[in-house]
Amino acid sequence: MGIEITILVGTMTGTAEMVAQEVQQALETAGHQGAIQVMDNLDAAVFQRGGNFLICTSTYGNGDVPDNAQALFNSLETEKPDLTKIKYGVIALGDTTYKDTFCQGGLRFDKMLAELGARRAGEMLMHDASSGTLPEELAAQWVVPWVEQHLAPLLQPEDRSSQETV
Prior knowledge:
Elements: E1 4-10, H1 15-29, E2 33-38, E3 51-57, H2 70-79, E4 86-94, H3 104-115, E5 119-120, E6 125-128, H4 135-151, H5 157-164
Parallel strand pairs: 1-2, 1-3, 3-4, 4-5, 4-6
């Protein structure tokens, strides 16, 4: 059976949401489940149930998380919840034209989640808008191998069986 993943989207212009939609489609084609949640009005409670998460976020301004992700990021910073039951990955969108802040939105989420005890599966996907590749195509190609090679091995047998009954 497939693995359930919540895809949290931080976006200013809609690119990260478009990437998340392509990722969701690729997951479902491979037999997994991807549920997209745009970060608008979310706080640390989104992680309460535990589970598998994929952060898909752009970078804005001086290396900040997007406006719609600010409340969630600030909530994590202030509440400091125990995220030891969380497994996650990150798709970070950036542009090397801004080399000092390249993919900082995703990198900031990665650092915060790790500090709170969450366990990252594999390496982050960092897309460069200056590369000439489309982020949604790259992410769709990346996500299934990421799940099968990096996320699935982290799941305990009880995690797998509870997901298979859903």
